[in-house]
Amino acid sequence: TFLELGSGRGRGALFLHHFFKCQVIGFERIPQFVKLSRHLAHKYHQGRVSFICSDMLKGELPEATVIYLYGTALTDLEIAPLVQKLKKYPKGTKIISISYPLTDYDENAFHIENR
Q1: Sheet harboring 24-28: ordered strands across?
Q2: Taking residues 74-98, what's their average pLDDT?
Q3: CB under 8 Å to 80, separation ≥6 — which residues?
Q4: CA 35, CA 66: separation in Å to the nearest integer?
Q5: What is the average pLDDT score of the chain?
Q6: What is d(CA 91, CA 94) in angstroms, rounded to the nearest whole number?
Q7: 79 strand-pairing partners
Q8: What is the DSSP string of 100-115?
Q9: What are φ and ψ of residue 66, in 5° steps?
Q10: Which residues contact 67 (CB under 8 A, 6 or more apart)?
Q11: Residue 81 in contact with residue 73, Cβ under 8 Å?
Q12: Is the pLDDT of residue 115 over 80?
């Protein structure tokens, strides 16, 4: 299961599902984006793609084996509690973080495999 934090209009989630056939969950806090994403998933029969309208900083995050975070718009005050949530995922969960390494916020919680 691929979890995209901040899925926007769902294009990345829909792309991943279409080409890699994996289950994808998009997590987005802007209702208009979630509405559009859900519409597109339904229109193109993308059954294993779902979108959750919630703030990733406030709600519980679903189970996933791969997590994608493009966090350029998040402040340090937002990233710190998110890192605490991400630390709770089982060992072996892959976290793809764009913009900065999560080890900047907790150097012992994560292992960087590639830059």
Answers
A1: 49-53, 24-28, 2-5, 66-70, 94-98
A2: 92
A3: 105
A4: 24
A5: 93
A6: 9
A7: none
A8: S-GGGT-TTT------
A9: -135, 135
A10: 2, 3, 4, 5, 86, 89, 93, 94, 95, 96
A11: no
A12: no
Q: How far, in Å, CA of 90 to CA of 43, rounded?
A: 34
Residue type, 21: K
Pairing of strands 66-70, 94-98: parallel
- Extract the runs of DSSP E, i.e. beta strands, from the chain: 2-5, 24-28, 49-53, 66-70, 94-98
Q: What is the pLDDT of residue 69?
A: 95
pLDDT tens readout for residues 14-71: 999 999 999 999 999 999 999 999 999 999 999 899 999 999 998 889 999 999 999 8
Largest CA distance in the chain: 44
Return the residue matching tokens 């979630």. Answer: 34
